[in-house]
Prior knowledge:
Layout: E1 3-4, H1 9-15, E2 27-32, H2 38-50, E3 53-59, E4 61-64, E5 70-74, E6 77-80, E7 87-89, E8 95-96, E9 101-102, H3 113-120, H4 131-142, H5 144-151, H6 156-159, H7 162-169, E10 173-175, H8 179-196
Parallel strand pairs: 1-4, 2-3, 2-7, 7-9
Antiparallel strand pairs: 3-10, 4-5, 5-6, 8-9
Helix pairs in contact: 2-3, 2-8, 4-5
Amino acid sequence: xxxxxxxxxxxxxxxxIDASATSSKGIRIFTHAGGAHRDEFISCCILLATYPVExxxxxxxxxxxPDGQYIAIVENELIQINVGxxxxxxxxxxxxxxxxxxxxxxxxxxxxxxxxxxxxxxxxDINNLPxxxxxxxxxxxxxxxxxxxxxxxDVGPAFVDSAILSVFSIRNIITQGDPLYEIMREMGxxxxxxxxxxxxxxxxxx
Length: 206
């Protein structure tokens, strides 16, 4: 998933919903549509448990306009991203914590989006992680077969049930009041507690 600069971007931005009209219900999370993966799913759950979140928007693409606006294509709707306030996870082709842009696909040397979220949004020490998270990070970048070969383990499916990933995969907009939103928020609380239980030094000052 990459940020695309198109000649028609100016026209698109003129039709997009203005980011300044962002709901007072909270920030928005933007991630990719289609088949869901464990890294962005867990990231979304943890963010729901950490911040007031208006909703999760799963994008077909993100367009960067010549004047620097970021436009998310969600179903048939164009939504302007409030860069630096909204959080972009696993899509966009950019890694910039100060602007809350967390994609890793443009550089294999980067950690997965999940580790980016843990490090920069929860201030978690990513050098002190449980094996489940290490496996998810490696598998997301190199595939499950390679992760099992290198790490000599297969712990990914035990951490997130594949059934809920299937449900997440077919939903494009998940907002407050949606049962899936509430389930994911509760899962985020559980994920955070599980991570905290691995070491007393999980959180670091920045």
